[in-house]
Amino acid sequence: MNGQQTPMMKQYLEIKAQHQDAFLFFRLGDFYELFLDDAIKAAQELEITLTGRGQGEDRIPMCGVPYHSAEHYIARLIEKGYKIAICEQVEDPKQAKGVVKREVVKMITPGTVMEGNMIQEKENNFLAAVTWFEDGSFGFARADLTTGENMVTLLDGDIDEVVQELSACGAKEVVLGSEWQEQAVLSLKEALPITISFEEASTIPEGYEQLCESLDQKKLSRAFGRLLHYLIRTQKRSLEHLQPVHYYATNAYMKIDLHSKRNLELVETLREKKKQGSLLWVLDQTVTAMGGRLLKQWVERPLLSKMAIEERQEMVQSLIEHYFEREELRDELRHVYDLERLVGKVAYGSVNARELVQLRKSLQRVPAIFALVRKLENDRATSLIKEIDPCEELVDLLERSLLDEPPISVKEGGMINDGYSQELDRYRDASRNGKTWIAQLERQEREETGIKSLKVGYNKVFGYYIEVTRSNLHLIPEGRYERKQTLSNAERFITPELKEKEALILEAEEKIEALEYELFLALREQVKAYTRPLQALAACISTLDVLQGFATVSEKNHYTQPIFSASRTIRIIDGRHPVVEQVIPRGEYVANDVNMHEGRETLLITGPNMAGKSTYMRQLALLAVMAQIGCFVPATEAELPIFDQVFTRIGAADDLASGQSTFMVEMLETKYALAKATQDSLILLDEIGRGTSTYDGMALAQAIIEYIHDEVRAKTLFSTHYHELTALEHELTHLKNVHVSAVEEQGKVVFLHKVVDGQADRSYGIYVAELANLPKQVTERAEEILAQLEGQATALTVREEVKAVKDEAAPTNEPTQLSLFGEEMDHRTENKKKEIRNKNEIQEEHPVLHALKSIDVLNLTPLEAINLLNELQRSLRNEKG
Ligand code: ADP
Ligand code: MG
Known about the structure:
Blueprint: H1 7-17, E1 23-28, E2 31-35, H2 36-46, E3 51-53, E4 60-66, H3 70-79, E5 84-89, E6 102-108, E7 126-132, E8 138-144, E9 149-155, H4 159-169, E10 173-176, H5 182-191, E11 195-198, H6 218-235, E12 246-247, E13 255-256, H7 258-263, H8 279-283, H9 289-300, H10 306-321, H11 323-334, H12 339-348, H13 353-375, H14 379-386, H15 392-401, H16 422-449, E14 455-459, E15 463-469, E16 482-486, E17 490-494, H17 496-528, H18 531-556, E18 563-564, E19 570-575, H19 580-583, E20 592-596, E21 602-606, H20 613-628, E22 637-640, E23 645-650, H21 663-676, E24 682-686, H22 694-712, E25 715-719, E26 735-745, E27 748-757, H23 764-771, H24 776-791, H25 795-809, H26 827-840, H27 845-854, H28 862-880
Parallel strand pairs: 1-5, 7-10, 9-12, 10-11, 13-23, 18-22, 21-25, 21-26, 23-24, 24-25
Antiparallel strand pairs: 1-2, 2-4, 3-4, 5-6, 7-8, 8-9, 14-15, 15-17, 16-17, 19-20, 19-22, 26-27
The structure holds adenosine-5'-diphosphate and magnesium ion.
Magnesium ion (MG) binds near residues 613, 614, 654 and 686.
């Protein structure tokens, strides 16, 4: 573009310069226009036509969306993670001298959308802000603008922790400061699909101090301050519904990292990302949107406090026992609208009369709900409602003020009740009188003219008229009416008196509309004053809803109340997988016990493919989650420890869904679990080691099991198709073999899905091949090869022999170095190796195993791991050659 900018373009560029990271929707008449790069990108993303403004070289790219349908386009951009600045004309174009004044009136961003199809009823929409302090810790704040909920916490550790926390709350957008280096921002972007925004200010803005009175650390208020500044800057309007910020300690909840959350399908399925098929889907018997959101929060954050869990359990038990009260409670709750978001809209100024009627209808249910809670005669439940204000005066106000079915628009009247305002009543009388007069006019004129088909009607252009069909025109006395409009088979007339009444009616109606709008705004302000009590009420009702949901699902599916052991014992009788049992035909699920205690800290699970290994493992983790959120569990008896963390890892070959199913991911995830798990954690390792070649995989699997067994000591379920590993039972005192049984029935393999002690029959694969009628020659040869392989190193013998090598090689007990593979390889080791090789014809693998065993997996970077693997593989190939 050359220097000949139009004044409007100059204005555009000035505003755009301040909103570089957003699409600028620039209001021009009935359109929002986008220019230059914005236009090119938006045209692509929205599939709309790219046009241009100006001529020749000066022509600049442009595209536009109509003002009245903009919401749809905005939604699509937001869904893709973009931000949008809405720039309006802020003066009347008729009054303007020169270019109409324009300003950005608000920003719409993925973390701050308030309405439309981007907002899920049963999901929060969180915006997060993270402040990185000099000491390496992070202040983490989040807010849901639609509900006004605010939380803040401190995170120690690395960016991983931030990623985990962002994903735990499902934040759509995160606000950072300039202390975040480019590299760190990039790594955040890589880890999560999240919109990133920036805000420097982090002191608590004026007027918001009382929201953070509870914060006793400066760091916390700085994190929250950043969030507030961003909200104020982007929203440019009242944020009065923001609730006082609530501090939460991340270590008050069971930690479920991102991968585990996905693998366990807690809130959505792995492949299709749908709620149906997830644990949340089974558990969600809530009947309000608020309850649905709270349930999701609970599922994502199981508790650690036994007392807090048992409080929930107690209320669930009471609700199970009081069947009729519970059913009535559900009925009442069904009529409660989304109070939290209604309150948000009130404060935000976007609420309409119809929504205020929803608020009224919801509040009218509260007395009955509270009465039902009292009927439970449960102290905990009663104390839940004790301090809660049912907002009766507000109900009264809304009953007096609003009609039952007001329109969506707040500018067309039809909202306010008769008797609420004398002035309004007077205008309404005038309008009604006028209308009665007109209604009478029809009868009167029919009588006087004798025209039975004479009509009095109204249209927007001509106002009130008298209509007479052509065939009756001759009956009208001369000079009685004035002709106004001619239709094909009728004429329309007016009289001076009719026009006079019409003017009165229209004037009254205009006044009514204006006055109703005024009254509505005043009413909205009055409702706003109830923000805090309404929010407390909403929180109380959502809790009740989640608890009744637990009771309902527990009764429906025959769950049992779990008890928590201090002795780290797991004892589950006839446990079932909560989701699988729902999706297979009724009664077909095979219940299984889990027994884990001292001496059975690790269970090694073998069994043929499709036998039910993965299901068995996940079942335990899901039961633990259900227990710790206060729900009952699918089992006839359940005793569990309180787990601090749950880790689920799936061998890469099994994890087809993620699209990045590389062995590296498998190892990285495993590393994370090994590094973070404690004795109180639950680890599920599902066919770890599958993503690489057999010996590599088996060696790694064994090393990992040993490490967990000796160092971490977490409760661990390890499923594997490496039968060789079952020999570990003799070596590792806390490890036990279990297997999933299968039998042959009428020429078919039937999976019993029953988990029993001991190792699986390892010849199943060939057996299945026989059943599939592979040529006899093939299966017989396979048996032969199998026997040969079995004669060779099993995991245990390899372990022993490698140990022998190690003992000889390092008599001083110094840690054995990787130098085994280097030039300096100890001669005695070499000799010993040869000896063993000669004696047993052990393959060349054991030095590799040896090396693997001496690796400190936790202190390897991914790159080192790859190099090491590469080196191991090369050395193997070299030795062979
Ligand atoms: P594996 O991990 O051993 O290959 P899965 O755990 O994936 O096997 O189970 C395969 C299928 O078997 C599941 O999709 C489920 O339909 C069925 N299944 C697993 N466990 C049970 C059970 N206890 N009762 C009934 N069906 C089961
Ligand atoms: Mg499996």
